[in-house]
Amino acid sequence: MKKVAIFDIDGTIFRSSLLIELVNEMVDEGLFPKDFRRAFENQYAAWLDRRGSYDDYINAVVSAYNNNIAGVDYARFKNVVGRVIGQMKNRVYRYTRDLVRELKSKDYFLLAISHSPMEIVQDFGNGMGFDKVYGRIYVVGDDGKFTGVMEYADLIADKAKILERAREKEDLTLEGSYGVGDSEGDISLLGAVENPVCFNPNRKLYDEAKRRGWKIVVERKDVIYEL
Asked: Rounded to two decimals, what is the model's pTM?
């Protein structure tokens, strides 16, 4: 049985959100309407001004994506995914990038999770050397266009469930396991592994990490330190 390490991607390995970079390029490509960003501009401004949370902002982006993906041509979408990955693949944090490499050298089974669409998560994960990735799966119809239907929404919403599913399917052990996340949505995942790492955590995760004695790592500019 292989040991397992499971990583959140957005804001934990990638220094932004794959979804945000994708939708910006889709708007520029004309796959989404020009006024697409109006759906989350208030949440974005509130987050920039530190009056609102990042979770509110990203949830509004996800909602806007879900409301506009139906009818988008899959082939054009895949071209945009390839372009975004080509531009963004190296925009990663050093700490988590190096931890991925270290654990891979120790023959860990590497899992990655993102709430971004599966296609861009897959391409990013492959480039990082992950063994398996999980992302949002949107159905494509016989006409080569997205139907607007999303599959396995309940699974992707719970990272601890994903870990358990992968552990059973891939014959993995939680002995010596690692989990890395950055927000309260990762608490159930971090609580399931032997070596939880809270990386650049938000306040809710930070408070939980301090209460449970979990490792907290911050990377700021060119400095990496533990709290």
From this structure: 0.90
